[in-house]
Amino acid sequence: MRQRIITGFIAGALYLAFLFVGSIPFSIFIASIAVVSYLELTDMKRIRLFSPGVLAGASAVAATVLSATFMGGHMFSDLYIKLLILLVLILLGSLVFSKNRFHAEQASFIFFSVVYIGLPFYLLVQLRLEGLFMALFVQITMWATDSGAYFAGRRFGSHKLAPHISPKKTIEGSVGGVIAALAIAFIFQAIFRKPIFTSWEIQWTVAIVVSLLGQVGDLAESAIKRFFNVKDSGTVLPGHGGFLDRFDSLIFILPVLYLLGIIS
């Protein structure tokens, strides 16, 4: 627990420092985290790190995230489509020339990993470009959800939420996470006196949506880890696992915020 707290404090402080700075430093920082998260996924699949497919995927993830700072809208859409087309061509070429060391299942997993990781982290950078307080609100709401779910689950948890995926998570913990997220919304209201979104009602609703769907994202990553029979996605954060373990909720919630028009 002591190691977990120390790691969480240092990593959280570093993340918040880059979040406050924003711009190119934040984009590079998040691109680095995205690439490591992608490599954690491909490592679960036991795909060789220096295979052409894995390296092409890592390059596509980095280019996707970094493009948020330098282009957006139709320019990004055009780049993203071209990146995916190029990636597919490289993966198909690897199938031909790898002498059966690289196969279609691995190629499909790499393509999934690039989309699963690249686009949400692009949206994270885009969210910061649209405003510090909005990005801060979403991030702190997710942290509050994790903490609220953990402590409520330990104190009151008795009904399993998804035992086939994550046996330790409980319905009581999930409710505690939502309550903690709403508490953050009211704290923001008390501090800033002006809603980050168009109204306080929308801000409260966003807090609930972020909390609930963030928990779904956490369960989705747990399902992936259970399939590959691993406890953590990586070891880069002692006591916490890998970067994917820390960003699994945001990876799910950010595309939903985009679909709802909260991120443009």
Secondary-structure map with pairings?
Layout: H1 2-21, H2 23-44, H3 52-70, H4 73-97, H5 104-130, H6 132-156, E1 160-162, E2 166-170, H7 171-192, H8 200-228, H9 243-259
Antiparallel strand pairs: 1-2
Quickly describe the structure.
The protein is mainly alpha-helical. It has nine helices and two strands, in the order ααααααββααα.
Explained architecture:
The N and C termini lie far apart (39 Å). The protein has 264 residues and is mainly alpha-helical. The protein has a two-stranded antiparallel sheet with strand order 1-2. It is globular, with a radius of gyration of 19 Å. The protein folds into two domains: 1-130, no CATH class; 132-229, no CATH class. The longest helix has 29 residues, at 200-228. The chain contains nine helices and two strands. The model has no long low-confidence stretch (mean pLDDT 88).
Number of separate helices? 9
What is the oligomer described by this structure? single chain
User: What sort of overall outline do the alpha carbons produce when their principal axes are compared?
Assistant: globular
Series of secondary-structure elements, N-terminal to C-terminal: HHHHHHEEHHH
Largest sheet report: 2 strands, antiparallel
Indicate the percent of residues in helices: over 70%
Radius of gyration: 19 Å
- The order of strands across the largest sheet is 1-2
Mean pLDDT score, rounded? 88
Catalytic activity: a 1,2-diacyl-sn-glycero-3-phosphate + CTP + H(+) = a CDP-1,2-diacyl-sn-glycerol + diphosphate
GO molecular function: phosphatidate cytidylyltransferase activity
Family: Belongs to the CDS family.
EC number: 2.7.7.41
